[in-house]
Amino acid sequence: MDKIKIIFANRKDCFDKPGGDTVQMMKTKEYLEKHYPVNINVVLSPEEILADTEAKIVHIFNLDTIVETNNFINVAKKSNKKIVLSTIHWNYLDTYYVKYLEYIGLPTINAPNYIKKFIIKVFNFFIYNLPFLNKKFNSFINKGLYCTKKYIALRKQALKEVDLLLPNSIEEMNICASEFNFDINYIKHKTVVIPNATDFDVNINEQSLSIDDFNLPKRYVVIAGRIDSTKNQYNIVKALYKDKDIGIVIVGRVQNQQTFNKVKRLSEKRGNVYFINQISQKDLIPIYRNALCHCLPSFYDTTGLVNLEALLCGCPIVVSNSKHCPVKYYEFDKYGEVCNPYSLKSIRAAIMKNIEKNTRIKVSNEYINKISYKNVADLTYNSYLRLLQG
After folding, report:
1. Three-state SS annotation for 317-349
2. How much helix, strand and coil, in percent to the nearest 5, is found in the chain?
3. How far apart are CA 156 and CA 182, in angstroms?
4. What is the pLDDT of residues 302-315, one digit of tens each?
5. HSE (side-chain half, CA atoms, 13 Å) at 201
6. What is the DSSP-derived secondary structure letter of residue 202?
7. Pairing of strands 336-339, 38-43
8. What's the DSSP call for residue 205?
9. CA–CA distance, 301 with 92 (Å, rounded to integer)
10. What confidence tens digit (pLDDT) does each residue in 78-113 have?
11. Which regions of the chain does DSSP assign to beta strands (E)?
């Protein structure tokens, strides 16, 4: 059987500044090429799509690098290629609201959506009109500032033009329909849900560091992920401020220096907080295995790969409610505790509930298969066949 030639397209800096879209793209490529007759060419510019005359499908990763995404779509259409889009999208209302509040030094207090939108629109006005803000938030302008007509129009155009959508959850599919004013049946008709996955191998402990190598306290909560306002490390430290017998271990690179400085100051006042720079998956294994729980009450996560890694290590988890992440599709409410990321009381209660249970997590074999890249490859390849067969 002849190999199907496919183009994978992603933002031009996806390897210089790797993110979840980079990991998803490269792991999908690895497992597709391992198990199916495909030949995948990764491109970072529209010109490369034009140059590849043999590929039948262009698979684009990330709705929110919207200028590049639409450029890829336009060129693919001109080349008469089928277009697939892994959306990797969530509603960013709370993300921008929290980011802007942090910038002007205000606490992350919850508010009705209309107030959040008002604050974002006011900030948008100043971003456009003040040079120093324009420079700082330049990427927001390029993407079409959130809450503007341009933001909606650019993404709606992309969702309409592609042949097939591959969101990472049913919740993500529903957000793409509601946020961009599509009939849900229209979106469903062109959607195949592809779960976010991990090839995290919990059986490589002989190659990983020992928990003793990290010099951590006996009882601790772990937070894995980049340090930035979206991941909400500050509210976790604040929620556990008086529970100083419980250590807090924060693992991840500094994404936002302002956030890190704020978290660091509070952590020094509290004490018993440990910072570990970004480390490999295998080195995280003993940290997950010995933690009381893993806590990630983000203001948005299309999944949160660290949640899946923690579960595979038997570590109980705390995640945000369904407004902020796909709780139901990934069964986070079954395998962990759910909280309101704005509420210190709610975050603390979810952590304490896990600690009181004092049990390790055992996910089902069905769940492990669901979040495997082999399953991702199976679903993705069958989606390609569906397209090519009309």
Report:
1. EEEECCCCCCCCCCCHHHHEEEECCCCHHHHHH
2. 50, 15, 40
3. 8
4. 998 999 999 999 99
5. 6
6. T
7. unpaired
8. T
9. 10
10. 999 999 999 999 999 999 999 999 988 988 999 999
11. 4-9, 38-43, 57-61, 82-86, 164-165, 220-224, 247-251, 273-276, 293-296, 317-320, 336-339
